[in-house]
Amino acid sequence: MNKFILSTTLITTTLLITALVFVNSEQAWSDEHNEEWSLFGLSSLKYTGVAPVKNASYKDECGSCHMAYPPGLLPQDSWKKVMRNLENHFGDNAELETSTHQELLSYLTDNAADHSEYRRSQKIMRSLNSNETVDRITKTPYFIRKHDEIPKRLVVDNPKVGSFSQCNLCHLNAQKGSFSEDEVSIPGVGYWGE
Fold it and tell me: pTM for this structure?
């Protein structure tokens, strides 16, 4: 290989690697700050965060006991697993009438992370192994990685929170589908990072 071709290849490779690092860091920053990311007007995805809950039955039925988790926080196979086990829904009986069960199952699977145009949903999907069907958002590798710096004493041992599954207690805009670090305020502790 002559020197010109070798030099051109090295320069091109270096520029491509630099561009990829830049794009990845910009996307990570925009995710953390819940800003839409674009490069010269081009965006990889239209939305940040996850799609907010819009189904009234789901809000009523599930939201009466816990936060109505946005469907984009789990893939459709996970929602199917959750909905198959409502007679033992994490220790409680949450069985539904057949028509309501079918409506909620359709809503959850149609809007699951693997069908979402929201960036955080797609990051959750990329974190999962293809043969893995988790039934808890807190078991997804994405969730674990995003919360690994938060001491257990601030959440699990905090009587004002009690569990990492109480997303809406710390994520002030969780109902809007926003889980930005900038909007985290832990009850009894204050804004995260201050």
Answer: 0.78
